[in-house]
Amino acid sequence: MPVWLREHSWRQTLSAVYLSLPLRGARATPANIFCSEQYLKVSIPPFLFEAILYAPIDDTNSTAKIGNGSIFFTLYKKEPAMWDSLTLANADKEKLQYLRENAVLKAHEKAKEETEAKKVTKQEHKKYALKATMKLEEAERKRIEDLKEKERQKVTKELELWKNQQRDGDKYKSIPKKGELHQEIEPLKERKTEKMNKTQIPKEGTSKTRLKSTKGCHASSCIFSENLKEEQLPAPRAAATIKVNFTPRVFPTALRESRVAEEEEWLHKQAEARRIINSDLSELEDLKEEEKNPDWLKDKGNKMFAMGDYLGAVNAYNLAVRLNNQLPLLYLNRAACHLKLRNLHKAIEDSSKALELLTPAVAENERARVKAHVRRGTAFCQLQLYTEGLQDYEAALKIDPRDKNIEKDAEKIRHLIQGTMQSS
Amino acid sequence: MSAAVGAERPQVVSHVQQALSYTVFDCKWVPRSARLLCLGSAARGTGIVQLYELHGARLELLREIEKPKPIKCGTFGATSLQQRYLATGDFDGNLNIWNLEAPEIPVYSVKGHKEIINSIDGVGGLGIGEGAPEIVTGSRDGTVKVWDPRQNDTPVANMEPVQGESKRDCWTVAFGNAYNQEERVVCAGYDNGDIKLFDLKTMSLRWETNIKNGVCSVEFDRKDINMNKLVATSLEGKFHVFDMRTQHPTKGFASVSEKAQKSTIWQVRHLPQNRDVFMTSGGSGSLHLWKYEYPAQRSRKDSEGCEMGVAGSVSLLQNVTLSTQPISSLDWSPDKKGLCVCGAFDQTVRVLIVTKLNKV
Question: Per-residue pLDDT averaged across A378-385, rounded?
Fold first, then answer.
């Protein structure tokens, strides 16, 4: 149940009503006051003040002043008349209710209208602002264009002026070209008048555009003395050659051609491969230190291959592979041994493994890849799988088109294939 | 068109644009005149030389000369002002010097290289500098040869790879340091990023370095002074400015580098009237105008007491995009400050005016 505030006091004039409402200590904000044409309510929970006014008031212009623990209302009457009392005396409950609701509705409508009006004005303001900015920008743009135009015209004018100077200068230049000896010079506006004949020594300091071949002029550093200068020119230089070296690079391609990423990958892979030691320590314990080094074993294998001891070489390579199965050269060389031993399938296997390990394909491992292809090709051919062999030879040729032996062998294989096709 | 209109910044104004019916590889102003030359290659595989004159707002074709082989580059650098003969290098490796008044027979001709002459430069002519007029050509066959027009058939200097060395294309050459009759230096840039400086007085390699990306263009700021600055441009939008006054025994020349745009920088040209201003042209059809500022101290002593150079800084004055195709050639007029011509691969040649260079 709200607590009614009833200690209000009021007085009136013909056009206004002044109502003072003490608040009993409650604090009021504008949100607590609700006023419509004929209904006034102040609700500060738990306090409540309500008044159905005697006559309608102009609620838009009326004011409420909050301060000093009370609210002071200044209500302007719609019709100037003296009220008998502040509120309607005989107001039964239903009427009160109806009036309240009405008041609220009216207030709502008004609020809505106000927002609509505000929106419309806002739109108009926006449009206006936009137009104004557009105009400003147009003006700015025009100003810039004008500046540019002015520059352009100024510069064109200057150019024309300069050109005319050139043209006059050229007129003089053409005279000696035609081989005329006497030189008549028309006085130019921009230069001092000067008459020149053969006997007179030309003045120094004239403009650069004058080019006259002179006779008998004294040596000077200006362009008039071109003839004299020629005699002073040094003889042609003694011929010499300077040899140059170009910047060496690990990969001899310029940055734009380089396949740096792949080359890096290859280098990285090689470095990794070197570090791997897949060891079966138990078996290898009785080996000497150097025998555990795959490189040393590879060298040993190479020596044995050179001497013809293919089995020994294979053994060496096998051990090396057991120690480090990522080195492509081991497989490559083992494939060569198997070829010699006519273990053709093993040769093919090893060359394939070598090729696998020789990715990515870069300039560094070209030689190795060519060898691998050739060895595999040979093995295929010896197994009479000529088409596969030809494929490998062609791959080798693609990597290294200049090797004549590979070309010859490829040709031979092609003939063989054609021969067998014809006969079968 | 130009970027912002700052009150003091130079503007690049496009004055004339001329569409051509052939690919233009090089464009050059004829000294002491308002005429310019365009050199290039027609679709039928012949070389074209066109002479235009600037008339108001348009270019008037004065003369067209057709030659059997496409022409890649040309220079007026080694002729006298009266003669103004054009030296050209063509796709076949021939160096020819033409008198444009009588272009049927060349004044000088030699088959200098086995492959296309990529770049040519001349020194000693035009009343600039001293010493004998000489022409240097750099070719795809990896050699750089210096020619004297008074000596037929053999070059006066030949910079070639050592026997057995794989050759790299030479993309650009430039003369420099020609401040008296004996001194002369040739700088060559190669496609693997090598820059080599040859001293012609001692006939030796004076300095070399590698800037990783292929060198498209090198130029000294002035040919006829004690070498001061060298700008080298490369692929991938970088260029390096070397301070050539102080050479350190191991570290060479100090440099500052700048990455201007994503694409190749095809050409660099210094303004003839101000050696600290230069323009670079790019593969995206843009031109950048730069100014070099010297450092407070151009050289200092390093830890061992050797002199070493200090590079300054480069600032961008203006940039403008004119075309969608690379601007492959650029030339400032030696007579009018700010007038320049550029030729692009969209078969147009443009005459531009750069304003406010006085205030730079």
Answer: 86
Over range A329-351, report the average pLDDT: 88
**Whole-number pLDDT of residue A327:** 82
* B160 in contact with A, Cβ within 8 Å: yes
Question: Is the pLDDT at A235 greater than 80, yes or no?
Answer: no
Same domain, A55 and A116: no
Between the two ends of chain B, the Cα-to-Cα distance in Å is: 20
- Interface probe for A, chosen from B13, B136, B179, B192 (most Cβ of A below 10 Å), is B192
**Global pTM value:** 0.58
**Mean pLDDT of all residues in B233-237:** 89
Q: How far away is chain B from the Cα of A191, in angstroms, using its nearest Cα? A: 17
Domain residues for the domain of A60 are 3-88
Do A246 and B13 make contact, defined as CB atoms within 8 angstroms?
no
Interchain contact B153–A (C-beta under 8 A): no
Domain-located, residue A83: yes
Is A73 in the same domain as A103? no
- E strand or H helix that includes residue B110: strand B108-111
Do A82 and A124 belong together in one domain? Answer: no
For A:177-206, CB contacts with B below 8 A are: 177
Residues A68, A15 share a domain: yes
Strand partners, A52: A39
Q: Which domains does chain B have, with CATH numbers?
A: 11-355 (2.130.10.10)
Tell me if A239 and B339 make a contact (CB, 8 A cut-off).
no
Tell whether B152 is within 8 A of chain A (Cβ).
Answer: no
Three-state DSSP class for residue B199: strand
Instruction: Tell me if chain A has a CB within 8 Å of the CB of B15.
Output: yes
Same domain for A117 and A75, yes or no, is no
Q: How high is the pLDDT of residue A293?
A: 77
Instruction: Write the ipTM.
Output: 0.71
pLDDT at B195 over 70: yes
Same domain, A140 and A41: no
